[in-house]
Amino acid sequence: MFDNIFVPGLNGIASFVFWYPFVMSLFWIAGTLVYIWFRDKDPKIDFDKVDWPLISFLVPCYNEEDTIEETLDNLLGLDYPKKEIILINDGSKDNTAAILKMLSKKHPSIRVIQSYENRGKANALHLGAHAARGEFLLCLDSDAILDNDAPYYLIHHFLHKGERLGAVTGNPRIRNRNTLLSRMQLVEYSSIIGAIKRTQRILGKVMTVSGVVVAFRKRALLDVGLWDRDMITEDIAVSWKLQQRFWDIRYEPRALCWMLVPESLKGIWKQRVRWAQGGQEVMLRHWRVLFRWNQRRIWVVYLEQWISTIWAFAWLFVTVSLLLTAETFQQMLIWITFTSFALVFMSLIQLFISLHIDSKYDKVKRFYLWASWYPAIYWIVNTGVVMSAFPRAIASRYKGGYATWKSPDRGISRNK
């Protein structure tokens, strides 16, 4: 396919750059359809006929003066019968500490933990877990608006899916939808992330729970030593620790949680570099899983992460090589036109199927036209993100200490 375009030796790399995303798109489509056919047929739950256990809601906060009151009002308004709410301030530099103090006086039922040094989200969750009275911990970001039925759907798994169930991850939905960047992320969460979660669940192992909304069995967390406080993405790290100790993780698409996403290029860049770095840190720490036969079910997830990282470097290498070696503009145009059309076409099929499936939880099919922007922009941005994150992930292995966090970009608009 590429013989007349590239110099000898580059054809294999060029083929990899083309075929890997093409095949993986087919893989995610197939996995999604299998999940829908076999796993997405759970009967409706009669909430009134279950003796629901106590849930401890843990909400870590860092510079959340603009969102925390709204999140707390949402949690107080949930009709789940047995709950405690614990808000943890992790050394915020804005008015979050004062707001939490005011809220604790206004609502005596909530509990507030004030930490006056920024030691990261994982450390804040540690403090909350030690203070929690419930056997089940529901961890939320401080901009999250939880659907009223979400706690029931999450906890129902723990009551009926076995004692080895360690965590259930929910279904994050995007609240701010007024800009191009937010709508592209809406398509991503509804299709790409949803498809990957469903497919990985079919495989039996997932890359990560969602840090925005996830329920844990406290006993499982204690078994693995709680969250790693030196890892920049505590949700990815704890997912791998749980699964290596043979705790199961499930995905519950009916557990909806509305969140805010960045609406600036700078905000998206910082967020994605953090995610990529966190994933790479986990891959570097847990490389021994490849040499343990009893961990073989997670090999596919592990290898897919590294191959995706290698693909980003290969894509840049091939693109630069083409610019330097193409003898004519026609050669360059053939490569760009053919590969872009084929990959974007396959990506749009995947996006359409996933959006159609997710539309029963959220009316997202009307945003399909925005999907056309996603593949091209995502591949370019993702390449830069992976390359920026990789040296940071390596450096973090030698740095040690607490993985602190910075003020997130919560976007500028908040409509459902």
Topology overview:
Layout: H1 11-38, E1 55-61, H2 68-77, E2 83-90, H3 96-106, E3 111-115, H4 121-131, E4 136-140, E5 145-146, H5 150-160, E6 165-174, H6 180-203, E7 213-217, H7 218-223, H8 234-244, E8 248-259, H9 265-285, H10 299-325, H11 329-358, H12 374-399
Parallel strand pairs: 1-2, 1-4, 2-3, 6-8
Antiparallel strand pairs: 4-7, 5-8, 6-7
Notes on the protein architecture:
Helix 2 (68-77) links the parallel strand 1 (55-61) and strand 2 (83-90). It is built from twelve helices and eight strands. Helix 1 runs antiparallel to helix 10 (299-325) and helix 10 (299-325) crosses helix 12. Strands 3-2-1-4-7-6-8-5 form an eight-stranded mixed β-sheet, sandwiched between helices. The chain starts with 10 loop residues before the first helix and ends in a 17-residue tail after the last helix. It has helices spanning 11-38, 68-77, 96-106, 121-131, 150-160, 180-203, 218-223, 234-244, 265-285, 299-325, 329-358, 374-399, and strands at residues 55-61, 83-90, 111-115, 136-140, 145-146, 165-174, 213-217, 248-259. It is of the alpha/beta class.
